[in-house]
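Annotated sample (chain length 333).
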Amino acid sequence: MSFNLLWLQSGGCGGCSMSLLCADTADFPALLKSSGIHLLWHPALSLEGEQGLLELLQDCLSGRTRLDALCLEGAVLRGPNHSGRFHMLAGTHTPMMRWIEKLCAVATHVLAVGSCAAWGGISASGSNPTDACGLHYEDEQIGGLLGRDFLTSGGLPVINIAGCPTHPGWVLDTLMLLAAGQFSADDLDPLGRPRFYTDQLVHHGCPRNEYYEYKASAAQPTDLGCLMENMGCKGTQAHADCNTRLWNSQGSCLRGGFACINCTAPGFQSPGHAFDCTPKLAGIPIGLPTDMPKAWFVALASLSKSATPKRVKVNSRSDHVVLPPASRNTRTR
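Output written by the structure step:
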């Protein structure tokens, strides 16, 4: 029996779908088929037009078509005045918000794909004039569109595949586990995110880890040094496997020279400071590694800086390797 998947798009940029198309496969439809997943409809990948979609939605609501998983990309737009009329589904007189509520009620599993669908994300930044929110969260507050007590008929809350954008592997692995009946509530972290990627930190596998260990920090964006102390990097706090599960098998934000902004977390879009700056108190970064007491970090940083090799210190403030590692015979004598 195939696992029926419906993908809808609400208030967002479409970046998670763009990321999905970078899945590590030469034949995306065949990958889904081999996993027992039947894509009922996707706004960019399906050929059916407006009428075909509306018929499909009615079939899902009536039970004529089984809806195993509903994926929503983009935030839910509740404005103005909670009417949802800022976003009407084409060909209907019904706000997308109402369609989402009704489809979530009949879906066996509901997945929020991307941080907009999970928490509101970029769509809810600033004054949030569209009253955007996530399916099950509004930033850090549980509730969102569906309410704090929402559970699907499959017994799970909304699965928040957060990221801006999500890694295609996070989406596909979650869908494959659901289709195989191998995903349970124990596989979700406290924010409803799949633990297979959020039980790790972006810091793990970071190409700048040697600079971090010696607290040899970059002073400007083009420097090779650690980006945590001065350039706003939150990789030691961000839950994701970005540097061990690379985009297109070779890339990540940090490998591209950009600091981690913790885009898998609620509220990342409004950090209260410029993304490329690190807030400090008495010269110490406020955002320290999640599992390290402040006193330990200060002591470690002081010791590390005093032991920094010249090679690491020089290279950290350059845009290329100035001093390569020394060549020595390491054979045991």
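Annotation: The radius of gyration is 22 Å.
Annotation: Residues 114 and 162 are 4 Å apart (CA to CA).
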